[in-house]
Every structure is written in C-alpha cells, then in structure tokens.
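Structure (tokenized):
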C-alpha cells in the first residue's frame, strides 16, 4: 500500500492547482491547507538545500504555485510592516545563529529558507487571502466541517485502534503502545500522533461554538447547530488527548466570559500565560515539584509522570541554553545537554516546542516564536476592533485568537507543528494591520 505515498504527496500539487482553477483563491487555500494536513501521509522526500517535501510542506509548496499561476495579483497584499516583525525575525534569525556558532552562512541560509517555507508561506497566505468577513468565515467553516468528518475517523480508531494510516498508506506512524490510553485507544488517523488529532478537534470545536452565536437570520454564513457543537466537544474528549481536552474546556470558558462581559482582559490574560510560564521556569520561580503535584491532583499519576519527564527536559535544556542565551546553539543537536562525566546525552528526547526553540535560537528566536502566536491577539485587542469583539459581525475572530493562544500554551509541553496555525496568525495580523478596513464586504 505504500505506493500511495508518492501518489498522494506529489499529486497534491496538481490537486491544489485544480482547486485554484475552480474555486476562489481563499477557498482553494483553505481547502488545500486543511485537507492536506488531515489526509496526507506522515512521510517525506529530501530536497537539497530545502526542507523535505512532506506532509508539512506539500500544501505550502502547492499554494505558492497556485498563487503564482492563478492569483499573482494577491502578492501585493503582503504589505510588510512592523506588525510582521515576529515572522521576519523568525525566518532571518537562523542566519545570525549559524554565523555565531561557526556553522557557516550556508547552514544559516538553508535554515532560513526552511522557516520561510514551513512558517512563512502559510503565514503570508493567511494574510493575503483572508481579508473580509466571508473569507474569514469560510476558513472557519472549512475547519469545522473537517472536524466533523475527521471525528468519524477518530471514533472508528477509538473503537478498532489506530489502523487507518496502515490500511491506506501501509505503515504505522509511531509505536502502537503510545496510542493506548485509559484502557482504550487514542486515535492518530493520518497525523503523527494523537496529540495533533486532539488539538485539531479542539480548534474545530471552539470555532463551532463561536459560529453558533451568529444571528438566526444570518444568510451568508453557515451557523452550526448546538448539537454539532456538543457532538464535537464529546468527540474531542473521546480522542483521549488530556492536554487538548483541558485546553478546550479552558478555551470555551474564556469564550463565554468574553461573550458575557465584553472584557478583552480574558483574551489578553490567556495570551500572557506562555511568557509568564517561560519566565518563571527560566528564573526558577516555579520549581517543577509544585507543577507536578498540581498536575497529579488534576489528572492522574500517569499524566503527572509524563509531565515530570517534560519538566526535567526543560531544566536540562534550559541550563544548556543559558550558556548561549541570545541566539542559541543552532541545529545539529548542539543544544542538547551532555554529561560532563560520560560525554553522553543526558536525555533521549525533547518535547516542548519552546524548549527546542530556546536551545537552538536563544531568547531572540523564542521571542519571535512566542510572538508569532500571541502578538495577533494583543494587536487586535488593543486596536480599533478590540472593543467590538462581542459584535456578531466579528465572529469568529475571537475563536481564532483563542486557538493561537491555546496552541502556544500547548507548545509549552509539546512540539506540535500545524500549518493552519501560522495561516491563522497571518490572517489576524492582516486584520490588525488594517483596523479601519471594511471587513464585512463580500469577496470579489
């Protein structure tokens, strides 16, 4: 069955080109990005000087080709400004890091190109293709519908065990034992692990809950019934991804509080959780023992042990990273802690995205990475649209802001990339950059 792997990955480019031919650019972008991420195999083919051609990059490459062929005029919408500082810093900082670590300019440029493709292309696609109410809501509807469809696959694997990737593409994406949770199975479908599935279902549910608040007479946008919202909520819990479930509950609570009170404070407070946590961990203000005790009280011993392993990684990698605090150690596992006695690595792996970024890129890269997720929320909340977030016309901006903040909170413990998140980041920055633009006109 592995013959389908190159067919799916290589075939995604002409499929996306076809989508650009028959759909509007924002529709083709949303469908290609979402469907590619959910359905393509976790596989890659090496490209010299570029990131592997894989599930991670296939949609980005395809959309870039689609833009050049079918929508070149949209490129002028990029309009770089100070609002784009996080993505610019994120894509260019590897050059400085590689130079300071003696890795050479080629290594730095290669790393920058990788970040431009993996993070930059989705970001700028979001910025240029989603500029008004209908375009923004189409992306939301695409994610919600994809969540409903994916939930059937998830529930199938909850019942039968994670087998779909093996049935379709001929291989299992990870060790089977990792998919056993709570005397049952955690679905992976066509993603690298069940945590990614849980985060996607979480995002779909939050968007559905927000879109369900549209006025009953709304004709131009689909308004999900609350039964669909309830179903997605239960399906997310059934995925047995503890972190995603907790983030979903917390996100729904914040969404309700903002709807009831109209206070932007709750969005801002949630966005501040990651930088406060990172600062506390690096300064030693919050020792890991206290966090583990709290986690054990909220979940169970198994999840507490998993968290403890991640916190030990934070301590080890953080100590090594502070030896080169500004721009980090660069790639090639140079940031990994090594025992002074044996010369061997002190850990077998690293999970938290922020830990990885801090070790490789230092505080500069970490600031860029964190801002890429949180700056859109801050920019909108303190901008002209901040006082209007309760208005039905602005649905679902609030839920998109929530998703980015929750994704960054998840990045504190897990290293999960999702190309739709930088797409959302670019979209929100484009909106914040044009606070007086009419967001409610129909797409042309």
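Design, position by position:
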């Amino acid at each position: 069955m592995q013959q389908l792997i190159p067919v799916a990955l290589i075939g995604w480019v002409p499929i996306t080109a076809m989508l650009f031919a028959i759909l509007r650019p924002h529709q083709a972008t949303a469908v290609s990005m979402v469907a590619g991420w959910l359905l393509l195999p976790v596989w890659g083919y090496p490209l010299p000087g570029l990131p592997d051609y894989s599930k991670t990059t296939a949609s980005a490459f395809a959309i870039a080709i689609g833009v050049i062929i079918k929508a070149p005029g949209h490129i002028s919408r990029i309009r770089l400004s100070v609002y784009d500082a996080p993505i610019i810093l994120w894509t260019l900082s590897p050059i400085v890091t590689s130079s300071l670590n003696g890795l050479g300019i080629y290594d730095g440029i290669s790393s920058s190109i990788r970040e431009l493709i993996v993070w930059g292309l989705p970001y700028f696609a979001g910025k240029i293709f989603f500029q008004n109410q209908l375009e923004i809501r189409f992306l939301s509807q695409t994610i919600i519908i994809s969540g409903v469809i994916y939930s059937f696959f998830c529930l199938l694997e909850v019942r039968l065990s994670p087998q779909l990737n093996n049935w379709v593409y001929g291989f299992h994406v990870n060790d089977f034992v990792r998919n056993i949770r709570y005397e049952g199975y955690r679905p992976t479908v066509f993603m690298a692990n069940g945590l990614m599935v849980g985060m996607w279902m979480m995002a779909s549910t939050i968007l559905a809950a927000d879109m369900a608040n549209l006025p009953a007479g709304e004709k131009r946008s689909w308004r999900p019934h609350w039964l669909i919202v309830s179903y997605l909520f239960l399906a997310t819990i059934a995925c047995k991804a503890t972190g995603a479930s907790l983030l979903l509950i917390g996100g729904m609570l914040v969404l309700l509080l903002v709807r009831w009170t109209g206070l932007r404070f709750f969005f801002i407070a949630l966005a501040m959780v990651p930088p406060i946590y990172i600062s506390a961990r690096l300064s030693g203000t919050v020792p890991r023992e206290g966090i583990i005790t709290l986690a054990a009280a909220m979940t169970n011993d198994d999840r507490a042990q998993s968290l403890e392993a991640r916190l030990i990684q934070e301590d080890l990698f953080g100590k090594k990273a502070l030896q080169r605090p500004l721009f980090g150690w660069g790639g090639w596992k140079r940031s990994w802690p090594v025992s002074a006695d044996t010369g061997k690595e002190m850990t077998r792996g690293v999970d938290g995205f922020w830990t990885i970024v801090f070790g490789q890129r230092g505080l500069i890269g970490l600031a860029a990475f964190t801002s890429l997720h949180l700056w859109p929320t801050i920019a909108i909340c303190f901008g002209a649209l901040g006082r209007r977030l309760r208005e039905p016309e602005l649905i679902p901006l609030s839920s998109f802001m929530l998703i980015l903040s929750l994704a960054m909170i998840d990045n504190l413990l897990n290293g999960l990339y999702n190309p739709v998140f930088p797409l959302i980041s670019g979209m929100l920055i484009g909106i914040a950059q044009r606070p007086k633009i009419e967001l409610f006109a129909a797409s042309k």
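Reviewer-requested clarification: The beta strands are 44-47, 50-54, 180-181, 184-185. The longest strand covers residues 50-54.
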